[in-house]
Amino acid sequence: MLKKQNEIEKRGLIEVTTDYEHMFGKNGEHKLQAMAGYSWEENSYSFFHAQNSDFLVDDLSYNALQSSVGLKPGDVKSDKESYRLISFFARAHYSYKERYMLTATVRRDGSSKFGENHKWGTFPSASAAWGLSQEAFMKDIRWINDLKVRAGYGLTGNQDGLKPYKSLVLLGTSGIYWNNGSWGTGYLLNQNPNPDLKWEQTAMLNIGLDFTLFNSRLNGTIEWYDKRTSDMLYRYDVPSPPYVHKDIQANVGDMKNTGIEVLLNLDVIRSKDFNWTTFVNLAHNKNEITKLSNDVYTTERIYTGDPWIREASGMTSHVVEVGWPIGQFFMLECLGIDENGKWIFRDKNGDGQISDDDRTYVGSAQPKLTFGWNNSFSYKAWDFSFFFRGSLGQKIFNNPRAAYGNSSQLLGTNALNDPLIYKLTEDPKVSSYYLENGSFVRLDNLSLGYTFDTQKITWLDRARVYVAAQNLFVITGYKGLDPEVELIRQRELNDETNRNAGLSPGIESRYFFPKARTFTLGVSLTF
Question: What is the greatest pairwise CA distance in the chain?
Fold first, then answer.
């Protein structure tokens, strides 16, 4: 069989902006900056594939695919799609003595992806900041070098993940038929139109405090935010009739994220020969689905996540439900394995039978805290640094153990060297037995360097030799390859290829490859 295939992606972009700046008042204490612009963008994708078989000779390769009569339905395929995005935007910033600051922006975006009634969206935002440390009543507080309070609110639109033409009626091929002595291709409607398909919107309120203290030895930021996403995109099942196709793309779901972020940078030691600086960042986020249905499109729950376990394929691992976060594990609760190697599951509904109705909430893939800790040291010509990061409180489904840690599929397949092989006598189940604590601390980077004195070398400004390492070790109780599996995405309900993609984080893939440990020896020269 010979084949030829090509894919072409094109992007055309035009952006025009204009800026304005004006200072007025005594000594220019008032400052006004403004910007306005226009953007035009067009993206297109085309695909072509052709193959044929049963050639008399292969000398012409794919340059003469027509020279055989082995062409079958599906051997020739092509596709093309495009969409256009047009934007008008403006921003204005006013400050008085760099003490009081106001910023306002507005965007007017239009996308061909959306329905006839809602192609355009308007997205404003505003923020304000107050430099408290510059006020007269703060002048005598010597240990405060800089202190600023800020707040902002804004609305943004999202079209990412939504393929073109989802608001329109689409026809697709459906087999072939015999008509008047020849074969014809059948077509049917494979997408319901939705002229009300519109922008997914996110409104965010944030309040922050920026500070520099103690002769600039400590600086940092504390910020609280409330992020509300509405009109999230999802394919809803609909009745037929009145609809022709079984599902439709619609804007229904709402979600909120609230949290706090802290960043601290401290010069622990300052001296002539030795310095030590440490940096810490902490973040806590709470995610919750607040709406999944309206008067037209309804769903009580979205079951999602397929760990793809042999003898348990099709069993879902997560649920998307009002009042619960994205990444909520929903499965049978395992109480252990009995002396005969049989599962012991909790009979949640008390009917004496173990079934899908006994599934329950058994943990979340959302971490309760993410953090990073960086330290930098210098002693004369030497420098040393290391960076730890990690997260706490999330659950991980050990999918490789569930798939390969059982004796029912030993012949002709891979298996783990795991005690479970000899203990379990039943097929694996999607259950809490395979859920593990995914908390971890990773030494991400470490480096040691020495900078030579080049003052007597006129042609060389700086010379440094160093050794560095990445991903040196991970501290975790997780038994799989790596606790840092796919992270949660905040654009949850808009995937088109798999409408549930992104809704089931926290599953280690059966084909997951751990991160490499890297060592580097280098020389840096500046001339």
Answer: 98
The string of pLDDT tens digits covering residues 16-56 is 999 999 999 888 899 999 999 999 999 999 999 888 877 77
Name the 3-class secondary structure at 484: coil
CA distance 189 to 210: 56
3-state secondary structure of 356: helix
Upstream peptide bond of 242 is cis (omega within 30 degrees of 0):
yes
Phi, psi of 389, deg, nearest 5: -150, 160
- Core vs surface per residue 262-273: b (16+ CB within 10 A) or e: ebebbbeeeeee
Distances (CA, A) of 43 to 138, 158, 492: 54, 16, 23
10 Å Cβ neighbour count for 124?
14
Where does residue 429 rank: exposed (0-12), middle (13-18), buried (19+ CB within 10 A)? buried
- Helix, coil or strand: residue 181: coil
pLDDT tens digits for 359-405? 999 999 999 999 999 999 999 999 999 999 999 999 999 998 998 88
Cα-based distances in Å from 387 to 274, 392, 420, 438, 471: 19, 17, 36, 20, 10
CB atoms closer than 10 angstroms to residue 320? 26
| 3-class secondary structure per residue, 27-55 | HHCEEEEEEEEEEEEEEEEEEEEEEECCC
Are 281 and 262 in contact by the 8 Å Cβ rule? The answer is yes
* H or E element at residue 344: strand 343-345
**Residue 473: other Cβ atoms inside 10 A:** 10
Residues facing residue 151 across a β-bridge? 128, 207
Given a contact cutoff of 8 angstroms between Cβ atoms, the answer to whether 121 and 97 are in contact is: no
Q: Which residue type is seen at 291?
A: K
Cα gap 145→166, rounded to integer Å: 54
Which residue type occupies 311? Answer: E
The lowest-confidence range among 202-206, 348-352, 486-490 is: 486-490
Strand 144-158 versus strand 120-131 pairing type: antiparallel
pTM for the full model?
Answer: 0.86
Nearest to 164 by CA among 235, 201, 114, 120: 114
Closest CA to 423 of 340, 344, 346, 345: 340
Q: Is it the case that residue 8 has pLDDT exceeding 90?
A: yes
* Burial zone of 470 (CB within 10 Å; 0-12 exposed, 13-18 middle, 19+ buried): middle
Alpha-carbon distance of 408 to 431, in angstroms, equals 17
From the list 122, 118, 324, 109, the residue with the least C-alpha distance to 233 is 118
- Minimal CA–CA distance to 98: which of 202, 27, 1? 27
Cβ count near 313 (within 10 Å): 10
Q: Within 10 A of 202 (CB to CB), how many other CB atoms are there?
A: 21
